[in-house]
Amino acid sequence: MDFNDNQPIYLQIADHFCENILLKKWQPGDRVPSVREMAAEVEVNPNTVMRTFTYLQEKGIIFNKRGIGYFVSEDGFEKTRALRKQDFVNKELPLVFKAMQLLNFTVDDLLTYYQQYKNSQDKGSNDK
Fold first, then answer.
1. Of 31, 43, 66, 82, which has fewest CB within 10 angstroms of its CB?
2. What is the pLDDT of residues 88-115, one digit of tens each?
3. Could you tell me if 16 and 51 are in contact, meaning their C-beta atoms sit under 8 angstroms apart?
4. First-to-last CA distance in the chain?
5. 70: Cβ–Cβ under 8 A, 6 or more apart, which residues?
6. At what angle do helices 46-58 and 9-22 cross, to 10 degrees?
7. What is the pTM of this model?
């Protein structure tokens, strides 16, 4: 996993977990990699991964079965989507809006590019 300097590592690992949940690679009730497994996979200190697990557990995305491991919560998908949506609105959209303003880019322009993106995604999924 490649880390950037713009965000704490534990949150970048949390983003990785959230992406796996949103892509439905990890379903509700699925066991997620252990702290040690994840630390070895992403090559960070287990304490950093434990901080990720604590964060995701506080958000209700994962839960711990003592002695067994961590699992995706039954409503983990919905909670993950809500968390990512909130982060997007609070962090990403202001940057998009600022760029749009600087570039004199309209909402109609944005819709056009978004539709092109969706069409290319739909075409790519139909090719499989």
1. 66
2. 999 999 999 999 999 999 999 999 999 9
3. no
4. 27
5. 31, 32, 34, 53, 57, 62, 63, 64
6. 60
7. 0.81
